[in-house]
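sry for the spam today, last one i promise. struct tokens for design, 86 residues
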């Protein structure tokens, strides 16, 4: 039977580490990738072509940064701490 995740000091540290990595990723995407995505999207609109919406890409990056990476940090921290092992 799979063990449950336990909240301890190391798991909270893992959550914050995942959140920190996610925030850094969103900052990098906003600073470096978003302007070129927006420019490409505006050119595609003017030429009648299709390109990815920059807001969709940024929303996906925020979803990963604020939900997936902290959850992954919690799981990794529980594995490293040996919580729930028999």
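last one done:
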């Amino acid at each position: 039977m799979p063990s449950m995740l336990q909240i301890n000091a190391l798991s909270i540290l893992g959550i914050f580490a995942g959140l920190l990595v996610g925030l850094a990723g969103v900052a990098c995407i906003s600073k470096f990738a978003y302007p070129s995505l927006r420019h490409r999207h505006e050119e595609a609109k003017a030429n009648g072509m299709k390109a990815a919406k920059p807001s969709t890409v940024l929303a996906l990056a925020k979803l990963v940064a604020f939900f997936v990476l902290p959850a992954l940090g919690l799981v990794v921290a529980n594995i490293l701490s040996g919580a729930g092992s028999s």
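The chain has a mean pLDDT of 89. ok im logging off now
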